[in-house]
Structure formats: structure tokens, C-alpha cells
Amino acid sequence: QVHLVESGGGLVQTGDSLRISCAASESTFGNYAMGWFRQAPGEEREFVAAISWNGGSTSYTDSVKARFTVSRDNAKNTVYLQMNSLAPEDTAVYYCAASLIAYWSDSANYAIRDKYDYWGQGTQVTVSS
After folding, report:
1. Measuring CA to CA, how many Å separate 63 from each of 19, 46, 84?
2. Residue 13: C-alpha distances to residues 10, 75, 84, 89, 96 (Å)
3. Can you say whether the dihedral through the CA atoms of 129, 17, 63, 77 is positive or negative?
4. Cα–Cα distances in Å, from 26 out to 14, 53, 67?
5. Which of 84, 113, 81, 85 is closest to 99 using CA atoms?
6. Residue 53: which pLDDT band, with cuts at 50, 70 and 90?
């Protein structure tokens, strides 16, 4: 069982930057691919970004590709999402997720919620206009 805890969310203005983090409880964190998803009120939970076990492969949804960067520090059991040029449509609860599959050669798999085995409780990001 992997326990994931997100942090770093908050209220920011349009154009601001924010970095959110997700800390894992297990030292085997380095074996997992990690994903970030978000859910706005009344919307489905959607894929944002993901990173393979060693950081060698990343994947982003088109709407954040030029603005967000996912990274990880396996020594700290932590994955990060650096978000730049934030806009009101980025407002959502952001969730991190861990997959027992460390890497997919077909990057489309990173975007599939069912591929992830453990989820955090989420952190709220609110972007005011």
C-alpha cells in the first residue's frame, strides 16, 4: 500500500506560477510511474501529466504542455508539478497517482486513470482572473 500526500495548492492570480508536490510513503517509490490528474467542479477527473519511474519519459495533456513540467526526486519519494502561466481554467483539485507499472512505451497509457493503483487525497488550486 502506497500512501500519497499532495501539498502546495492555493489561491493564485492569472499568470502566476505554482509548484505542487506529492510525497509517497514508500521507499519503493522509484519503481512507480507517477501521474497528475485534476478535477474541476462538475467535471470528470482528467489527465494532466505523468512521468516514468526514472524520469526518462514524460507525458502531458495538450492544454498544459507548454506551461507545466512534471519532475520527480526518487531520493525524496516526491513528484512535482511546476505550473506556469496559470489561467482560471486550471482551477481544480489536483491529484497525484502511482502506478505499479513503471513505464509504458505507448505514452497514451499514462493518461488512463485505471492504469493507476494508488491515489492521493488532492490539493486545491484556484486561479483567480
Report:
1. 17, 11, 12
2. 10, 32, 11, 12, 23
3. negative
4. 35, 14, 30
5. 113
6. very high
pLDDT above 90 (res 68): yes
Helix, strand counts (H, E) of the chain: 0, 11
User: Measured between alpha carbons, how far is residue 72 from residues 2, 8, 42, 95 in Å?
Assistant: 16, 15, 30, 15
Strand partners, 19: 82
How many whole angstroms separate alpha carbon 67 and alpha carbon 1? 32
Q: Would you state the pLDDT for residue 107?
A: 87
